[in-house]
Amino acid sequence: MAETRARYEAGASSAGGDVGDFVALMKPRVMSLVVFTALTGLVAAPGNLHPVLALIALIAIAAGAGASGALNMWWDADIDARMSRTERRPIPQGRVAADEALTFGMVLSIGSVVLLGTTVNWVAAALLALTIAFYVVIYSMWLKRRTAQNIVIGGAAGAFPPMIGWAAVTGSVSLDSVILFLIIFMWTPPHFWALALLKHADYERAGVPMLPVASGREETRRQILLYSAALVPTAVLPVATGLGGLAYAVASIGLGGAFLALALRVRREHTGAAADKACRQLFAFSILYLFLLFAVLLVEHAVRRLIA
Amino acid sequence: MAVSESEDREAKRRQRMRSVAIACVLGFLVIAFYAATIVRLGGNVAKRTF
Known about the structure:
The structure holds two protein chains of two kinds. Chain A is mainly α. Chain A contains 16 helices and no strands.
């Protein structure tokens, strides 16, 4: 890590970044989850959008998510260099200069919003712009280094994509799209805090006040359980409005039960390898949970459209 | 600092790949705007009266 910090402080190499480095700046794994949840919002929304415009919308949303990732990496390069989880990123490694990442992120941000606005509609484009601004300015620049509630408020940025997909079709926001937002909003804290418990030392070294650093591991475990308990009924809400059908009801209750069971195990295991294993399992399952929940909703609506 | 020949070749290779990537993105944008325009105009665009 000392080598990484030295490399970061020395600045980027004269060769410039590879295309792969710029792809890495965009956090492709986060992008894929963003695109998937946006696709679900798009398919679940009432109304029709031409497949060509839907594809362009999804590409614009992906680019917007990538822009957010690049701008976050530009801003957080100093703390990325101090954490084992992030020290291999392109800027700390000196493969991409910070100002290159900034330019890349800004061009992608403006381009994605303009593309979405001119080809689909400006409501969806405004939501995309809000998402990027929220993640970069509100979360990365303001909350992340200042408060243990950083991921609770800042996590809203990750919850907007299904609303953007919905707005691409309908040109508006609705109760159902807000419910999809709420599901991801309630999911974000237990997902990130499970990781933060595992990487506690990393965040402490970097001076980031994630909940385990600011309030301790016990409080973090308690809050993981509380948010998980709130997530389960939130995830069932689509059934109440008719957005989700029988398959979704079964999936949300079953997956929610499993999520809660893993959160309970995190709450119970306090020390040693068992505690780490519980956190790792919850973190891994949380990704599968969100994917499966939205996948079932997507398939339900796709089948409804085919039958109609 | 003197740059070695291999570093110079690597820098040029990376610059070339970045230029190709930018060209692909621009090409995609041309296609996207063209396709979106056709879709939004609709099928009867050729039958408009002037």
